[in-house]
């Protein structure tokens, strides 16, 4: 229909027709768009970290991850790749955020003995802190792991720590800070065993004070300059 001024006037059914047209083109007011829901990647990654830390690699399924991360499987794969790739990123974040006390102690303390005592004491605190699972993710995630690549990656990380302990101990032996006959490899492996054992003890409910008492005993066997090492 046409107005007196020549413009088109809606007929009695014009409004309804316009609404139907808008609905058919997807432009009706209030209609949600079909874009995927966005999410905070860092928050989702932290939630995945806590899930792997609590349950281990093998026991944490993709459905568990999508549930705790509050995202769909397509979003998980798009943002992180597959489960294994997500776990590798989780381990990197864990090392920087929760496990860096080992590297700091080795870098900042003047002797191997001081570094090991410090990292064991800090482990006693870190492994029993509230607000996150107890123990060490790198130790616990390997339990019952049947994925060879993941198992090997975690083993390599633990062995790298032992190699770093041994290197630092050998340096002190060469400098005279430890007796010449010190078995650097055995002492380094003892430190690794302490770290791994403290992680499991924390998982089993040991308190920080109980683990610190273990540290006292562990450090009492360390050789000192001028002592007989057997």
TrEMBL record:
Annotated keywords: DNA-binding, Transcription, Transcription regulation
Classification via SUPFAM superfamilies: Homeodomain-like, Tetracyclin repressor-like, C-terminal domain
HTH tetR-type domain: residues covered: 38-98
Pfam families: TetR_N (PF00440)
Key word Cytoplasm present: no
Entries under InterPro entries matching the protein: DNA-bd_HTH_TetR-type_CS, Homeodomain-like_sf, HTH_TetR, Tet_transcr_reg_TetR-rel_C_sf
This protein's record includes keyword Transcription: yes
Residues making up the signal peptide according to the UniProt record: none
Region Disordered: start-end pairs: 1-40
DNA-binding region: 61-80
Name of this protein: TetR/AcrR family transcriptional regulator
